[in-house]
């Protein structure tokens, strides 16, 4: 090949504008990851704020957060009796499924609702002092975990009543809960940023979650769909719910379920990272 044609094969040099844009993009991601790292070092502050939110919410109440436990138990008992008749299922097999599904779904739905207020709820703090946004995310996640812990006795009570203990396979739910935690952090960043910019997003999210409740096997079993159940993996909530629910019911979630759950989570985290890196510097001005 003629040497005179070699320069044509070389990529054209980047303009100053492209170099500046690339440097700005790298700096945005660097600042976003620094925010998370600095917030992780302040995890005790986030934990304390989340714990205080629970204490203040139920201050002056006789049962405190256990009102949530009582209401969940009554709802599961009423729905379990009714739907076991409607779906023609044995209550001994259906009620443990319903209790586990509803408690786990309430945790997901509660987290999504709380995530919408991640930054707007802390508007005064964000404006008054410089603090990593990740601290506010930890605050919401801790608050949701505490509320979930108050509902776990309902599941244990149902298992005890029907003698349907899952056994050692229940420990397999721990990796699923770990994935839930990462998704919870991503949801707080993603929905918190969107709702800070667009205040009409929370009602839209609430409507979507209401629809998701009915199309996700929470009050009905996946087997009831028959052959059409093969479309369930298209619902991200189904895979995420099953990797925790199946071990708690003494079953093994299939590898496909884990694959879909991890795939959806990775995609969601990548989108959230790109969004947070882009809007981090504007969040305080949107509040």
Overview features:
287 residues
Structural class: mainly alpha
Low-confidence stretches at least 5 residues in length (pLDDT < 50)? none
Strand proportion = under 5%
Tally of helical segments: 12
Can you give the mean pLDDT?
Answer: 85
Folded structure, characterized:
The protein has helices spanning 6-9, 16-41, 43-57, 66-86, 91-115, 123-128, 133-162, 173-197, 201-215, 236-248, 255-279, 283-286. With 287 residues, the chain is mostly helical. The protein has one domain. Helix 2 (16-41) crosses helix 7 (133-162), helix 8 (173-197) runs antiparallel to helix 10 (236-248) and helix 8 (173-197) runs parallel beside helix 11 (255-279). The longest helix has 30 residues, at 133-162.
Compile the SSE list and pairings:
Layout: H1 6-9, H2 16-41, H3 43-57, H4 66-86, H5 91-115, H6 123-128, H7 133-162, H8 173-197, H9 201-215, H10 236-248, H11 255-279, H12 283-286
